[in-house]
Specification:
Layout: H1 29-38, H2 43-50, H3 54-62, H4 69-83
């Protein structure tokens, strides 16, 4: 017997990142801290990325509190990406890409002055 999942829009897709109770699954608190440290991310970087304080991140990693709503879904996706080895996407204080400015045109070697004409004076900048 096959069921058409699309025929039941209230039923989440099997690959949907939320559980039946509507919350996103999070790894154990100690795994959260381990993942962050393994990517050399500071509590401040993670806090800034999620719009919370570093103390809140410490609470999440200690298991005292957990994020809720959209922040929970985003945090769960972030941790899942770290666990799968994906590069973190632009966390706090990303350095803007450096613009490559073209080098000024090189001065062409001037032709030697004709006999009887004075040499040009150097310009002072």
């Amino acid at each position: 017997m096959t069921t058409d999942l699309l025929a039941h829009p209230s039923h989440p897709m099997p690959s949907h990142p939320r559980r039946r109770d509507g919350t996103s699954p999070l790894p154990a608190p100690e795994a959260r801290a381990r993942l962050r440290r393994s990517w050399h991310l500071s509590e401040r970087q993670v806090a800034t990325a999620f719009g919370v304080t570093p103390a809140t991140v410490r609470s999440w990693e200690a298991g005292r509190t957990t994020p809720t709503g959209r922040r929970r879904a985003a945090y769960a996706a972030f941790l899942s990406g770290l666990a799968q080895g994906l590069a973190p996407v632009a966390l706090a204080d990303p350095a803007p890409p450096k613009k490559r400015t073209p080098a000024p045109p090189k001065k062409r070697a001037s032709t030697p002055p004709k006999k009887g004409t004075p040499a040009p004076r150097p310009r002072h900048r």
